[in-house]
Design brief:
The protein is mainly alpha-helical and 137 residues long. It has a domain at 25-108: Winged helix-like DNA-binding domain superfamily/Winged helix DNA-binding domain (Arc Repressor Mutant, subunit A). The chain is built from six helices and two strands, in the order αααααββα. It has helices spanning 3-8, 18-21, 29-39, 45-52, 56-68, 101-108; strands spanning 72-77, 80-85. It is globular, with a radius of gyration of 19 Å.
Amino acid sequence: MNSFSRDTQQESPKEQSPRATARWDFLTNHAHVLLSVSQDSGIRLREIAAAVGITERSAHKILSELVEEGYVLRERHGRRNRYKVKPELPLRHPLVQDREVGDLLEVLSRPERLPGKGGRSNGGRGRSPGKDRATVR
């Protein structure tokens, strides 16, 4: 097989190995760490690292940056730390700085869609997917 034919044959995402699909992600490791902490305030660094797929050292560095910037509060409880996310703070990127951290976490924390249920989820807000937002009170 020459390099041209190898480049033109693409596997579907389901056929690719986990290593091949792990080249990039839609979310940064900072977002993954923030999500982990928001879901479990008593989570340990090794658990964050395992969930995100990074080293404990990287998890510590990211979490420290989030604490320094005020996005996460760290409180010592005996030998453990407990964390609290500040959902009212704005997202950092200029394209989304008018949105809050809590908006992102809300979207990422929604229950997964059930298999076989097509279309978009309305997020459990009681609206029909076809309804125009302007008409809902």
